[in-house]
Amino acid sequence: MSTLGLMAGSEQITKAVSGIKSQVAAARGRDPATGSASTFEILATWPGVQAILAYRLAHRLYCRRLPLVPLGISFFSRVITGIEIHPGAQIGQGFFIDHGAGVVIGETAEIGDNVTLYQGVTLGGTGFQAGKRHPTIEDNVTIGSGAKLLGPVTVGHGAKIGANTVVVEDVPSRSTVVGNPGHPVRIEGRKVEGPDADWIHLPDPLQDAVKSLSARIKELEKQVADLSGGEDPQVEHPVTPPKKGRSSAGG
User: Fold this and answer.
1) 175 bridge partner residues
2) What is the tens place of the pLDDT at every residue in 189-198?
3) Rg (CA), the chain
């Protein structure tokens, strides 16, 4: 074997080892369960880590247009981990899937750096059209359990998708989306950056609208009572207190 061949092989091994270390570091940075786990335990038993490492290999072979093998790797990875990542998807560094069961990432999906997905997330298409048909996820996005992002939508930098949200339109940067279909809501006084798992204190635009309508009805009832000379009807309007308690993210 020539010296150039040995150097190329050594470089590939170095890149592979660096990629594995990077993936383990991403898991340690975002999953509290890794606190007492060794690197071997993470590699052997964390399906999210296994699925991403398998994807890296499959994607490299896919880009070299090697037939069958990339899809074969993807298939066996799905059987073992329950996570399906098409080898044609483009995924940046620092990507992490927590738990992972039921995650599906389509062929034309594009994922930036430091993105976090939870179990049951789908980055899927909406039809049989060719070309770009899956979502684009920018850097530092967190997507909650069971969320469905459908079609060539773009989720902006630092956004947060609530659990079980259905996203069919673009999501602005540094915003939170909740509901079905998803409603984007700015988070006041707070910059969304990096993984954020506080699903308890998400804003609710529908609840805010109901509160506003309730207040308006009460005002109109008072005006009608004043005009008719009657007493102001004492109507009880439901008020939902703000959510209290510890954050599910540990804050």
Assistant:
1) 186
2) 354 454 555 5
3) 24
Alpha-carbon span 93 to 153, nearest angstrom: 21
149, β-bridge pairs: 123, 167
- What's the rounded Cα separation, in Å, for the pair 8 and 231? 88
Q: Which residues pair with 111 in a beta bridge?
A: 91, 137
DSSP 116: E
Ordered domains of the chain (ranges, CATH): 3-186 (2.160.10.10), 204-251 (no CATH)
Return phi, psi of residue 53, to 5°.
-65, -40
Q: Which residue has the tokens 């880590």?
A: 49
Q: Which of 128, 123, 107 is nearest to 171 (CA)?
A: 123
The runs of H, that is alpha helices, within the chain are 3-30, 39-45, 47-63, 69-81, 205-228
CA-to-CA separations, 120 to 71, 141, 143, 166, 238, in angstroms, rounded: 21, 16, 10, 12, 34
pLDDT at 189 (0 to 100):
38
How many CA atoms lie within 13 Å of 77's alpha carbon, on the beta-carbon side? 29
Put residue 15 in one of left, alpha, beta given phi > 0 → left and psi -120 to 50 → alpha: alpha
Q: One-letter amino acid identity for 141? A: V
- Tokens representing 221 are 């009832």
Beta bridge partners of 105: 85, 123
DSSP-assigned letter for residue 33: G
pLDDT tens digits along 123-146:
999 877 788 999 999 999 999 999
Q: How many residues does the chain have?
A: 251
Report how far residue 77's alpha carbon sits from residue 74's, in angstroms, rounded to the nearest whole number.
Answer: 5
Q: Which two structure tokens, joined as six digits, stand for 174?
A: 């540094």
Give the C-alpha separation, 208 to 31, whole Å: 33
Angle between helix 47-63 and helix 3-30 axes, rounded to 10 deg: 140
Q: Are 135 and 151 in contact (CB under 8 A)?
A: yes
